């Protein structure tokens, strides 16, 4: 039966999804225009209607003019509230904000920005990615931001699902909602091994496994600027020659550099275990202020200090074996 | 947010609103129930203030059950009006004790609306309408608070804003409500009827006439009915409002005999019948009241053999009747022998002195006997008073020959007794006499209740004779107040026209309008009004056009004005110039972030496009200048933006 249902329903669901996507194209910024805002009775609105019907029955049965009046007043208020609820969403501009990467098993955070250009304050807007939701007010001609946390189970890219923007305000009888495909995604790092063995260098003596290292001592050349590079290392003369931002590279002190090597791990360890251990080591090395490099099958990150190096290594671990645009 | 706990202020607001809605029911509920209700409300309040834990389920369930059983034993039912309300009140009290969060509270708020309707079951006065209107405002404000972020936190400003929004919603809904009220097809109730719904007897005429039954009503100034005449009404002494006809006497009590329907055309009127509208208050009796003699029978009524209008069912709600009366008429010239026999019925014995006097009139022709009887009543020194003594077994003799003090029922009863003893068919007619003019309508109060007689004369038919008139003609000409001492009368019936009385009359005309147009808007009234708009049928295209056209027209106005307020403001030229600049930069791969300040954006742009840094700087300066008013003009900004080569 369920198999039958799914064969019948799944093409319909797919069509529905496609139709929705065509109405709400993927964009980092989206405006809630009239065509994109939907409105219908909410669940408590159905209870409200049932109550109105019961009251109408009483009004007819006992011939109570004032009960008629009340039923009509409440019905009219519910209908008027449609427009209040609808305009509460109308014209809002929603934009994808920053994202906060996390480790698998934690919650990734997505920032959303709501901009209200109108002179009407917007009340109690509910943003939700699946079950996770955030509520906020957007004052008139102002913007507001909200963070939504999504559980990240696996390493790799975590793409935010369809964003639902909804409002029950003011009476809760009607609910207006819209969708936005903002294409927000966040990198989920592997879960670090809980009780990882100490860093290989610390255990077996400094310098073990170290081949070469790039550091800050001897000038070695220029490479393009990356996020996290120290501004002190930017080659400003090169920048002035309009060659783009370049960063000076130096050969560092080899003895302080550390290689975290996939192949050096015990052979019987599985892929995810290796990633977990390397992840824990990257964090430990960064916390210890060490300069470290990472060697993965098919990828080598030369030793480096700092947050940028940590992030680059964690990203490499997160995406190991995963196609970049998956 | 749905699972959020209610805070102290929210609980207090909820309890206050529910309490306010249950308050008018207090007089209808037994005291033990009120005590339990107060206990439950107090318990909930205490729980909140002391932060105690909610009572567990194993306590709540038996409690609810016990309360339900209690209500059942008190009212012998869980349905009907009072029983149902008692049950509802108990369930609300019990629900309060498990109301932690907003979801439960929402249910209670909806029940609040329902409680409003239960109040209308008992009273639909203007005052009650205003009070409950305010309660609806409060409930709606609670509902708005429930759906506002942060809710009702007890800050007066926020509470006020929510009340204002609730009021705005109600005001915006009013026109649509009015259209629905007028056009929504009304159905004649009831859909169901519970035996408990019948009200206890209200004050008013009773279906029998015993000594004291009318004089008791003389103390009651509540309104029996209101009348508005189409044009000039008859003078006070012709205002005989015909009610039940009493033709059977058992020596003490006059009762109504069985009555068939009147034959068609039995009342022959002359001249133009008088049109009037009578709004009868509910009196829990089947009969209606009509000015002597009814010229037409309204659809809700039938005409009895005794020319009395009888409703098709008990008058348990206010009834608006469109009636006609003959001022000049002749009725019952050819009367059935059975009716005449009933009009001569007397008990076997009793009141020997009255019988003896009446026997002396038998030698006269019938019409003379009536005149003789009137003269007799006028010469006995009888007194008209609201507080007659209580007479015993021989009440006619005791009244006429000993006590000599009586109210209309004594006069009418004794008069009919003596005429019957003299061989003239006669009967007592109960009803009201007179009324008080208030603006364009007449108020007839319970104290205006009156009893008079009808005698049948060969060749004439039934003729109205009022023995009270012989003794106290001012009662008939000017009303009760002029015939008895002021201290005997209820306050509103006194003649002195003081300020309070005038205010009362003013209020009564408001009440009359309310009754006519709001409470009295019945299915017939709707049909009449629609007919005046040219709609004969609820299925006609014209009706649908009026109804839906009005509805959607109004809604379109509301919607347009509401959505107009939400429109984005017109973008100023500086902003437009800036956006154009942003688009140009975007084409070069420098996109402005969603919340990036112009100066930050400019810094990035300068780094990305160093060779145009000066130009970018100039544009940003100009934009900020226009924005923050440092003398730069918009034209210059536009010029620079246009000059910028992407």
UniProtKB/TrEMBL annotation, chain A:
Keyword line? Membrane, Transmembrane, Transmembrane helix
Stretches that traverse the bilayer: 37-60, 66-86
Task: Please state every residue range assigned to the domain named DUF58.
Answer: 223-318
Instruction: Write down the superkingdom of origin.
Output: Bacteria
Q: What Pfam family does this protein match (any one)? A: DUF58
Task: Tell me yes or no: is Transmembrane helix among this UniProt entry's keywords.
Answer: yes
Q: Which PANTHER family match?
A: SLR1927 PROTEIN, SLR1927 PROTEIN-RELATED
**Mind telling me what this protein is named?**
Uncharacterized conserved protein, DUF58 family, contains vWF domain
Starting at the broadest rank, the lineage of the source organism is: Bacteria, Pseudomonadati, Pseudomonadota, Betaproteobacteria, Neisseriales
TrEMBL record, chain B:
InterPro entries xrefs: Bact_TGase-like, Papain-like_cys_pep_sf, TgpA-like_C, TgpA_N, Transglutaminase-like
Give the domain of life: Bacteria
Residues annotated as domain Transglutaminase-like:
400-469
The UniProt keyword set, sorted, is:
Membrane, Transmembrane, Transmembrane helix
Q: Which residues are listed as membrane-spanning? A: 7-23, 29-46, 58-73, 79-97, 104-122, 128-149, 161-184, 543-566
A Pfam family recorded for this sequence: Transglut_core
Keyword match Transmembrane helix: yes
Name of this chain's protein = Transglutaminase-like domain-containing protein
Species for this entry: Chitinimonas taiwanensis DSM 18899
């Amino acid at each position: 039966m369920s198999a039958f249902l799914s064969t019948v329903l799944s093409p319909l669901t797919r069509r529905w999804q496609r139709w929705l996507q065509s109405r709400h194209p993927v964009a980092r910024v989206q405006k809630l225009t009239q065509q994109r805002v939907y409105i219908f009775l909410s669940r408590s609105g159905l209870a409200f209607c049932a109550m109105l019907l019961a009251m109408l029955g009483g009004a007819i049965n006992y011939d109570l003019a004032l009960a008629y009046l009340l039923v009509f007043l409440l019905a009219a208020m519910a209908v008027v509230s449609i427009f209040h609820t609808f305009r509460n969403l109308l014209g809002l501009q929603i934009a994808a904000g920053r994202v906060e990467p996390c480790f698998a098993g934690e919650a990734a955070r997505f920032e959303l920005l709501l901009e209200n250009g109108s002179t009407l304050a917007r009340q109690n807007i509910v943003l939700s990615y699946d079950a996770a939701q955030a509520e906020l007010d957007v004052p008139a001609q102002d913007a507001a931001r909200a963070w939504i946390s999504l559980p990240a189970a696996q390493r790799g890219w975590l793409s935010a699902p369809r964003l639902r923007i909804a409002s029950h305000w003011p009476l809760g009888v009607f609910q207006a909602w819209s969708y936005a495909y903002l294409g927000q995604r966040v990198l989920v790092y592997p879960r670090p091994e809980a009780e990882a063995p100490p860093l290989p260098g610390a255990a077996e003596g400094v310098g073990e496994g170290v081949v070469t290292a790039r550091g800050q001592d001897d000038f070695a050349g220029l490479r393009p600027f990356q996020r996290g590079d120290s501004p002190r290392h930017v080659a400003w003369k090169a920048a002035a020659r309009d060659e783009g931002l370049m960063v000076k590279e130096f050969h560092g002190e080899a003895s302080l550099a550390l290689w975290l090597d996939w192949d050096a791990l015990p052979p019987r360890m599985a892929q995810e275990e290796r990633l977990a251990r390397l992840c824990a080591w990257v964090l430990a090395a960064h916390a210890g202020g060490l300069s470290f490099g990472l060697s993965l099958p098919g990828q080598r990150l030369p030793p480096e200090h700092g947050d940028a190096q940590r992030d680059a290594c964690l990203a490499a671990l997160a995406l190991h074996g995963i196609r970049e645009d998956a | 947010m749905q699972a959020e706990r209610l805070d102290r202020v929210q609980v207090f607001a909820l309890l206050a609103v529910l309490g306010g809605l249950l308050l008018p029911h207090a007089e209808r509920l037994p005291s033990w129930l009120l005590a339990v209700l107060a206990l439950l409300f107090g318990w909930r309040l205490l729980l909140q203030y002391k932060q105690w834990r909610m009572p567990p389920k194993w306590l709540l369930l038996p409690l609810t059950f016990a309360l339900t059983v209690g209500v059942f034993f008190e009212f012998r039912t869980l349905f009907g009006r009072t029983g149902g309300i008692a049950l509802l009140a108990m369930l609300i009290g019990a629900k309060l004790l498990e109301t932690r969060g907003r979801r439960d509270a929402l249910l209670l708020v909806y029940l609040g609306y329902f409680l409003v309707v239960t109040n209308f079951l008992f009273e639909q006065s203007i005052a009650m309408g205003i009070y409950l209107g305010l309660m609806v405002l409060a409930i709606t404000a609670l509902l708005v608070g429930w759906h506002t972020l942060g809710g009702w936190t007890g800050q007066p400003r926020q509470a006020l804003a929510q009340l204002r929004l609730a009021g705005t919603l109600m005001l915006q809904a009013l026109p649509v409500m009015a259209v629905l009220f007028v056009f929504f097809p009304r159905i004649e109730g009831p859909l169901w009827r519970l035996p408990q719904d019948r009200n206890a007897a209200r004050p008013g005429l009773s279906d029998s006439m015993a000594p004291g039954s009318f004089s008791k009503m003389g103390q009651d100034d509540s309104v029996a009915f209101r009348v508005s005449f189409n044009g000039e009404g008859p003078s006070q002494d012709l205002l005989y409002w015909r009610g039940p006809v009493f033709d059977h006497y058992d020596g003490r009590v006059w009762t109504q005999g069985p009555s068939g329907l009147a034959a068609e055309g039995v009342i022959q009127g002359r001249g133009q019948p008088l049109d009037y509208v009578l709004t009868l208050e509910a009196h829990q009796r089947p009969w209606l009241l009509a000015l002597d003699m009814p010229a037409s029978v309204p659809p809700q009524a039938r005409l009895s053999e005794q020319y009395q209008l009888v409703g098709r069912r008990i008058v348990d709600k206010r009834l608006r009747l469109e009636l006609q009366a003959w001022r000049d008429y002749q009725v019952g010239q050819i009367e059935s022998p059975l009716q005449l026999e009933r009009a001569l019925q007397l008990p076997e014995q009793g009141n020997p002195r009255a019988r003896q006097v009446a026997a002396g009139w038998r030698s006269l022709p019938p019409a003379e006997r009536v005149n003789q009887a009137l003269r007799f009543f006028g010469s006995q020194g009888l007194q008209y008073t609201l507080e007659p003594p209580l007479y015993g077994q021989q009440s006619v003799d005791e009244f006429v020959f000993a006590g000599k003090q009586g109210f209309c029922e004594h006069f009418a009863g004794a008069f009919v007794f003596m005429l019957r003893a003299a061989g003239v068919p006669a009967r007592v007619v109960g009803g009201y006499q007179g009324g008080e003019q208030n603006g364009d309508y007449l108020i007839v109060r319970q104290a205006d209740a009156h009893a008079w007689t009808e005698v049948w004369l060969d060749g004439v038919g039934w003729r109205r004779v009022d023995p009270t008139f012989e003794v106290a003609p001012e009662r008939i000409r000017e009303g009760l107040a002029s015939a008895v001492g002021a201290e005997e009368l209820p306050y509103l019936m006194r003649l002195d026209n003081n300020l309070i009385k005038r205010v009362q009359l003013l209020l009564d005309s408001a009440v009359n309008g309310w009754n006519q147009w709001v409470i009295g808007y019945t299915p017939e009234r709707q049909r009449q009004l629609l007919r005046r708009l040219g709609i004969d049928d609820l299925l006609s295209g014209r009706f649908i056009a009026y109804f839906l056209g009005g509805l959607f027209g109004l809604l379109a106005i509301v919607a347009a004005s509401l959505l107009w307020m939400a429109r984005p403001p017109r973008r100023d030229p500086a902003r437009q110039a800036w956006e154009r600049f942003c688009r140009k930069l975007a084409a070069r791969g420098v996109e402005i972030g969603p919340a990036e300040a112009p100066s930050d954006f400019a810094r990035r742009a300068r780094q990305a496009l160093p060779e145009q840094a000066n130009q970018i700087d100039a544009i940003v300066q100009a934009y900020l200048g226009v924005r923050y008013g440092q003398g730069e003009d918009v034209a210059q900004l536009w010029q620079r933006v246009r000059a910028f080569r992407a």
